[in-house]
Amino acid sequence: MNGTPVRVKLWDPFLRGFHWLLAASVIIGWTLGQFGPSKMTLHFWLGYLSGALILFRVVWGLVGPPEARFIHFLSGPRAIIRYARGMFRREPSYWHGHNPMGAWSVIALLVLIALQVASGLVSDPDDYINIGPLASEVSAATRKLALRWHHIGSTLILIMVVLHVGIVLFYRYWKHEDLIRPMITGWKEVIRRD
Amino acid sequence: MRLLVAAALTLVPAMAVGQETAVDQALEARQGFMTMLGTNMGTLAGMAKGEISYDETQAVRAATNIQALTGYDPTMHFIEGTSTDDLQDRTEALPDIWLDLEGFGEKYAGLQQAAQGIPDAVRGGQENVGPVVEKLGGACKECHDDFRKK
Ligand code: HEM
User: Do A65 and A12 meet the contact criterion of CB atoms below 8 Å apart?
Assistant: First the structure.
């Protein structure tokens, strides 16, 4: 690691707002889906909110500030391998933005949540009280497939979120690098490489 | 001897068909039963949402049908060897039903209870249908969540 870390404004306010709203909406929506009341009105609304947030993130990934742009943080296998080699070193990464590995897990989470919203919109569980608002627009086979995916997706999202939080804690306690505070305040210690 | 072989040859397929029929009948009966519940629920849910205009006679008929249907015990059609493990895509009845017949029966009792008195409850106006649909739908969901393959 060369260079001295400098404190920079890394995450813009919209991205931070997006992140914590999405986290809240996914956690509450997921919990209601598993344990909530049988009339799932609030679960539906949190799904719409999550969908809107994902749409925002896609737009932000194209036209937002550099650190938020997909093109800025998505990299190929070589960069990923290079980063992964140093992954377990017990020192902060001082990475400027999403690191090459984290970036793809960000995409995976966004895609999973998008699929979850999409499948929820057209699911029909045959209980006549929780029908996806667009279920009548698709075939019965699609409704069934959507319901199946919605269930598999909920498990995958649980795994990804646990992994996501686990890795953030790994940075905090193994690599002595606090990523959470930057996601709240926007400020992070980084070493610029470009 | 030849007669015996001929008899055996005709009997074997006949037996196979006979076996298949018991399973077929169980599937047809219970899935048809669910479809009937669904059709009548569709009428009530449509009225509750305002997609179908409220009509007391129709609402009472649907509710009476559901209450009558729940007087029937469909668990007899969940015969051994007819779970998703045995029949794959032909059924959505999870093996858990047979591991917990008591729990399955309780979920059905929940629906029976929810259906008590609904013909009277849906009388008097569109606003009375919603609560009935919610109560019934909750009972459908309770059982589908645990015992029906997604
Ligand atoms: C359902 C819950 C959550 C979801 C869906 C979620 C999703 C995401 C997404 C999509 C990103 C990428 C941000 C972007 O560029 O748009 C991200 C980053 C991040 N999340 Fe979460 N998150 C969740 C919960 C949490 C929690 C509970 C924490 C705190 C322990 C956390 C800490 C972070 C941090 C620190 C980053 C930035 C990582 C980096 O520096 O590259 N997240 N999260």
Answer: yes
Residue A108 CB less than 6 A away from ligand 1: no
Inspect the interface and report whether the beta carbons of B137 and A150 lie closer than 8 Å. no
Q: Is A74 in the pocket of ligand 1 (CB under 6 A)?
A: no
- Number of neighbouring beta carbons within 10 Å of residue B58: 16
Q: Report the mean per-residue pLDDT for chain B.
A: 92
Residues 6+ positions from A44 with CB-CB distance below 8 Å: A120, A130, A133
Fold classified for A6-190: Fumarate Reductase Cytochrome B subunit (1.20.950)
Q: By the CB < 8 Å criterion, does A147 face chain B?
A: yes
- The runs of H, that is alpha helices, within A13-139 are 13-35, 41-63, 70-73, 77-85, 100-121
Q: Give the dihedral sign, CA A98/A100/A102/A105.
A: positive
Integer Cα distance of B110 and B140 in angstroms = 9
pLDDT digits 0-9 by tens, A118-140: 999 999 999 999 999 999 999 99
CB nearest to B134's CB, from A39, A147, A150? A39
Asked if B135 reaches chain A (Cβ–Cβ under 8 Å), the answer is: no
Instruction: Sort out which chain B residues have CB atoms less than 8 A from A125's CB and list them.
Output: 141, 144, 150
- Reported ipTM: the value is 0.83
Binary contact (A39, B38; C-beta < 8 A): no
Which of A183, A189, A190 to mutate for ligand 1's pocket (most ligand atoms within 8 Å of CB)? A183
> Which DSSP category does A10 fall into?
-
Q: A67-111, pLDDT tens digit by residue?
A: 999 999 999 999 999 999 999 999 999 999 999 999 999 999 999
Domain ranges of chain A: 6-190
- What number of other Cβ atoms are within 10 A of residue A75's Cβ? 17
Of A130, A148, A151, the CB nearest to B141: A130
